[in-house]
Automatic annotation (TrEMBL), chain A:
One Gene Ontology cellular component annotation held by this UniProt entry: exocyst
PANTHER family from the UniProt entry: EXOCYST COMPLEX COMPONENT EXO70E2, EXOCYST COMPLEX PROTEIN EXO70
Record-given protein name: Exocyst subunit Exo70 family protein
Function: Component of the exocyst complex.
Pfam family of the protein (one): Exo70_N
Organism of provenance: Capsella rubella
UniProtKB/TrEMBL annotation, chain B:
Region annotated Disordered, chain positions: 187-222
Superkingdom of this protein's organism: Eukaryota
Membrane association type: Single-pass membrane protein
Pfam families (UniProt xref): ROH1-like
Keywords: Membrane, Transmembrane, Transmembrane helix
Biased composition (Low complexity): 203-222
Assigned GO CC terms: membrane
Name recorded for this polypeptide: Uncharacterized protein
Family: Belongs to the ROH1 family.
Amino acid sequence: MDEFESKLPVSGVKNHVFEACHHVVKALRASDNNLDANLRKLLSDLESHLSTFGIADTKVEDTGFSEIEVRFKESVKTILSWETNHSTILESGPSEADHFFQALYEVQTVVMGFKALPMKTNQKEKDVYNQATVALDIAMLRLEKELYDVLHQHKQCVQPEYLAVSSRRKDIVYDESFVSLDDVEVVVEASSHEDDEQISEFCNSDLIDPSVLPHIKAIANTMFACEYDQAFCEAFISVQREALDEYMVTLDMERFSCVDVLTMEWNDLKLNGAMREWTRVVKNISHVYLPSEKQLCEQILGDFESVSSACFIEISKDTVLSLLNFGEAVALRPCQPEMLERFLSMYEVSAEILLDVDNLFLDESGSFLRMAFHELSKHLADHTTATFLKFKNAIALNESAHPFPGGGVHHLTRYVMNYLKLLPQYADTINSLLENINVDDSIPEKTGQDVLPLTFSPMARHLRSIVTTLESNLERKAQLYADESLKSIFLMNNFRYIVQKVKGSELRHLFGDEWIRKHIARYQRDVTNYERSTWSSILALLTDNNNNSVKTLRDRCRLFSLAFDDVYKKQTRWLVPDPELRDDLHISTSVKVVQSYRGFLGRNATRIGEKHIRYTCEDIENLLLDLFECLPSSRSLRSSRRR
Amino acid sequence: MRPAQDNQGSFLGRISIRRNQFVDVNNEQEQEDLELFQKHIADRFTDLLSPTPPQQPPPSDETNTVAPVAATEQIMSVTWLRKLMDVFLCCEAEFKAILLMGRDPTQISKPPFDRLVPEMLDRSIKALDICTAVVNGIDSVRHYQRLAEIAVTALEQRPLGDGNVRRAKRALANLLVALSLEDKENVSGGGGGGGGGNKTTERSWSFGRRSGGSSAASKGGATIGQLKSSSWAVGRNWSAAKQIHAMTANLTPPRGNEAAGLPQPMFIMSTVMVFVMWVLTAAVPCQERSGLANHLPVPPKHLNWAQSLIGIHEKIGDEWKKKEKKGSAGLMEEMTRMEKLGHSLMEFADGFHYPAEKDAAESAAAQVAEMAEICRRMEEELVPLQQQIREVFHRIVRSRAEILEVLEQAGKISAPVV
């Protein structure tokens, strides 16, 4: 340090130094209009000092330089004092911070000043320069640490729940795969999630406490001015990248390899969880987190535009690629119809975020990420469409070997209709996917009373076509019944179920009134068919011929009772699960049967004789109510109802 | 190919060919295609093994140009790796044409293809994961590049002061530690840098990067952070070495009748794929590679098409074995040179006394220029290489989809692949 005490003898050199200093200060100011207050003050201080030196210099050269030396020594001391101080400069308050930055600029000024000099300076000057480079490096390293510390300490949590984009719909859990549908009970549970939880409109949240931004910006500007820009970026990127990694951990987004995704079963909870999580995370990340990150980069590095976007890409790339990879991996899976809904929701999100993504990765350096998102969306679109079409195929190919017991609603019908019920919420998405795919539709023209455009949308046409496929499959299944009546019950049940599902959901607008009317008429025909096939021959026993002998009447009464017993035994084991339909059936059967029987008894009871009449009209009426209740098979006509 | 034809050199054989000519028109065409395919594979890899030197600029341009041009084409250089990607894409396109074009779909669903095709698709899925891991590994290389750039910036300062050297040393120490890291080595446990660098590392990290005061992170914050995230690229417990091993598990050259037909190009293409993936894994940092050298997919030496591939294989394999002993982030030629330069610049920095001695400074300046040149090339080529690898990824995805589609047409879509 002793050398510092001596004075620089060459006044010309000194002038160079001052000129260079002036130049540096000016350049620094010009480089940034938004210098923070500390820095601005510092610069003007420096400038005024310099001008004093300049004046002093012309008079008493040596004093001027020794003053610089003194100040330089002080500055170095200040910087060194921070080298071992582990609290942040920020905490020490604005005046301490000022002091540090000022010292730093003194040192930098010396460095820059000497660099502008011709090479031939004397040893002492060289030593000052050398000391200054060391002090500058210490200061820069100190700022790097400061950056780490401040970014860590003032990180703000982005609350996942605050950002939660709810799965806005009901999740249906299919416990059975489509292919194993036939003879096992399908449990279809509708578990409703929290209702429409709106995502707060495009919300940038602050990843870093805004009050420390000026400080960080000052660090950035200083480090950039001293050509430590790379060090700044490295530190900034590594902290922010780590923060993003942590955020992903809080979102439970695990990384899977393609092999993992492909080897998992379709109903693997881990896979399904990951897929659901993915839609949520991709939305959050592209809609909230990354825009906030980008904003942070711009706030801090906005003056160095290309650096700002390069940093942003470095911070986000790894996470973004991992999300893209999961999407690509999912699109490699076979097009299992069971997964349609999940593919749909993933595709929907991938299409939805494209605008966000385009804004995030606007420039050339981000173009490959932008393109990757567009590609992914296309792959998911293709995959989803293929799965949708496969859904129809799977319905067509579903075969049964045995008639469905009891004539109730077949699992396939339940499965398909419950699945279809999920789809209207994706109407826009599905319409865009199916736009150019032709399909045979039962309502080819816009005729009749249906006026809603929705009814004639590509999705509506495809859904009707899917149901048509289902219906022909059901007709095939119905052929398996030996009993005509049971066949009618089976068809009636299933068609009624279809219509009810359509009427009771968003599907009704898609299918249209005309379709619904036609289909109601369709199962009404089955009701008529049933009545004819079960009751026509039985009721024929009760019609009067004029010359009936007592014996004939008694025979007929006995035969009627036997036939009724037979029907009762069989049809109480059949099932009409829809209560309304069951009531209708009970009433219409009752009206016909009881009326005929009452008339028959009214005319002939006395001749037949009471002991030959097994059932009263009330008996018949009551017993008919047991039909289609799917009573246990052991149960037969109850004694209490016997005479 | 040859042996199959020789067998039919007899008169009877010729007659039988005639008799079957009606059926064999396609076969003959196919034979031709297959031979051409093998020839192209051989040519492409021969070119990779000993590249034809590009047109030298007129000699007026003396010293500067010659060395870099030669270096760029060297095996495992980033330029070479990019060329390798192109070669892969060409081979793949040609292979797919042979496999699918104008072919009766049922043909590739019958034995032995009902086994060979799923095995091939299975390999391709594993290749996808390797692509992902490698893209991530290249990100680590870009991190090394940035460290090297810091050293370059510092050492380019004139006059070179102690402060600049101090800064350069810090960057070099980080660079050397990162370059010599083994995949799963826990850095916070102990310094990885060799010899003289070690002490410097300790010193340079005794300060700063103490994120939030935690002492575990006090050493090499940025470096470790990078590695941490790269080790997660493909998912927990994923291992590049195991994937490569699994890809080679059922990869055997077709025998007997099969050797003359479609199984042959399938074997070739699979070999090429495994080879390319293996090269990539060895070139850049990659998740879990222990024993990578033992999983070499060595095709039988007598096969013509495989000669150059085996040549490249041996070269890289030897390097890997050497490197594996002392720990290395990757064999990419630029990284190797970067490491060498890093060590010698570190030596220069350690012995530096201000003001710089003229001779030492001059030789250091030359090395700094070389380092700067490497950084420049990395800057130009690493991102395009990443993009090419993603292209490879997408190509594999697309081909797999096309093959599955054909299989489905054949009505024999068996259980989903993998």
